[in-house]
Write a structure and sequence with these properties.
Layout lengths: L1 H9 L48 H13 L2 E6 L6 H9 L4 E4 L4 H12 L3 E7 H6 L1 H9 L5 E6 L12 H13 L3 E5 L2 H18 L2 E6 L1 H4 L3
Amino acid sequence: MGSSLARAGREGGGRPRVRAHPVLGVTDRPMGEGLPTHPVHRHTPSLDIIAAPMPPVSTSSSRIIYDALKACGVRLISALPETWLVHLIRMADEDPEMTLVRLAKEEEGVGISAGAHLAGVKSAMLMQNHGLLAAVNGIVSCAQLYRIPLLMLISHRGSFGERDPWQTEGGGVTEDLLHALRIAYQHLEDPLHVAHRIAEAQTLAYSSNKPVALLLCRDLMWEP
């Protein structure tokens, strides 16, 4: 078989021949002859990159929430990127007095807050309600078992007015899950109630040494 390949390679002046190439246009020529001496690129139509409009998340409500957290002494925030939390995360990132810990998954935030508590630093976790589902093991096995005060602010997706189908299931079980875990919670719907309820939630978290939750509702987080 080796001799057959050798004979095939010697056809046409001792040089192996190449098949037609759809890009280079090479036909039955000896390899190396008639090929372009510069790189050949297949033309790819450029993609039009259209910037998506910013979601109608309320900057003013986000500022009220952020200022209330700081007024309570919160100096560390953990979070994953999420549409309704975008301004809160940006404010924490731009604030030299705040430490923002970007998470790979929500459960990590429980450990971050536990460590912060042991170091004497007040913290808050920002998450979507699907993130709450992902963090259950850490909440139960760490925060509840070892009596760690945990302040959780949860964007309450999947409620009335939800436009994204993938958010609807998590929203439908959020409050049932909080009840099942015996986690006290309140809704944040009106900017006038934000500061008071955040302060009350943190007070309960520290007096009981347990997790508490505040559900950030659409009426608060979206611009009217």
